[in-house]
């Protein structure tokens, strides 16, 4: 038997800055449930903190694309509380127990509800997508910018099942609460594996000056973890550069917050700071030493990387100005 959801579509548009795939999944699930289109990609990207939080991985062999990429368990409550749904977040799925979830997935598809999944394997599969159909024990996925459902090998290791509706705050309250939480996002304490906000910029900049890459051979495949060889050093630089550019889209969330909460006039003071932080910062860095295509031989050269480190710190220091606006409220 075969069934595919009728309204399959592309969930993310990278050219529009929609690079955080979990938020596209949430947008699509809400659409399938017939919910307000207020609950769109930009809503969830702000609520989860993805749009406001620079993240740095201390291990270049374990890069992260955003908060929801590696740290979904830290923020998934925010996403579902904001839209008023319970959920079941299933982790620890492996080859021994994966088939035990097949019937539940098919049941959701039969009810016209997609299931959010994260799969291991190729780079393109190592992100969140949705299971949107099945044919016996083969499942159809939509991943990121896919325009058509595609069958991928069954290597999912996380599943998110949307649950029953529950009480939720109004969108205006959600926007207000999220904006007021921005300072906490920008100063989130580092963990053993990751740093956040201002510290993420410090660690990113310092990594090019502290000898972190001195002992990694030019031939080591870690330099080419991105699916395209043109994006060398993705785990060390391009990934974080992408975050800076993507988070420029936080401006849209701030504009909507002010529209729904016109008393929050201080938001107007944030607009030029976020423009300087994400917009100008990104355009400066993208023009230095090849931007996304920064080659390994350059990243291992501390002298050539010093101007990039300085530019990263200049961008990161704007976070202090952003936090000062909130401190005066």
What report would you give on this structure?
The protein is α+β, with helices and mostly antiparallel strands. The protein is built from 13 helices and nine strands. The strands form two sheets. Strands 1, 3, 4, 5, 6, 7 and 8 form a seven-stranded antiparallel β-sheet that branches. Helix 1 packs across helix 2 (41-47) and helix 9 packs antiparallel against helix 11 (267-286). The longest helix is centred in the last third of the chain and has 26 residues, at 302-327. The chain is globular, with a radius of gyration of 20 Å.
Question: In brief, what are we looking at here?
Answer:
The protein is an alpha+beta fold and 329 residues long. Helices cover 44% and strands 14% of the residues.
């Amino acid at each position: 038997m075969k069934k595919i959801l009728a309204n399959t579509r592309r969930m993310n548009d990278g050219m529009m800055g929609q690079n955080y795939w979990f938020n596209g999944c949430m947008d699509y699930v809400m659409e399938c449930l017939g919910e307000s289109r207020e609950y769109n990609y930009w809503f969830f990207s702000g609520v989860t903190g993805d749009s406001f939080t620079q993240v740095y991985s201390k291990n270049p062999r374990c890069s992260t694309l955003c908060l929801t990429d590696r740290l979904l368990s830290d923020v998934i409550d925010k996403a579902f509380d904001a839209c008023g749904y319970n959920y079941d977040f299933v982790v620890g799925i492996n080859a021994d127990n994966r088939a035990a979830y097949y019937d539940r997935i098919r049941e959701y598809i039969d009810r016209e509800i997609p299931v959010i999944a994260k799969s291991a394997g190729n780079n393109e599969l190592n992100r969140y997508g949705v299971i949107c159909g099945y044919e016996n024990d083969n499942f159809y996925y939509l991943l990121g910018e896919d325009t058509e459902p595609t069958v991928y090998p069954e290597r999912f290791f996380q599943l998110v099942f949307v649950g029953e509706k529950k009480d939720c705050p109004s969108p205006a309250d959600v926007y207000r609460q999220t904006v007021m939480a921005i300072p906490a996002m920008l100063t989130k304490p580092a963990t053993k594996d990751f740093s956040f906000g201002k510290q993420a910029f410090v660690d990113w900049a310092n990594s090019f000056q502290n000898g972190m890459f001195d002992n990694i051979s030019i031939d080591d495949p870690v330099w080419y973890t991105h699916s395209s060889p043109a994006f060398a050093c993705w785990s060390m630089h391009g990934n974080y550069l992408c975050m800076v550019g993507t988070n420029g889209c936080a401006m849209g969330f701030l504009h909507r917050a002010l529209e729904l909460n016109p008393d929050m006039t201080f938001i107007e003071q944030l607009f030029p700071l976020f423009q300087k932080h994400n917009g100008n910062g990104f355009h400066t860095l993208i023009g230095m030493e090849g931007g996304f295509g920064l080659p390994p031989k350059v990243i291992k050269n501390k002298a050539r990387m010093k101007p990039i480190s300085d530019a990263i710190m200049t961008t990161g220091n704007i976070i202090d100005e952003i936090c000062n606006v909130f401190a005066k409220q």
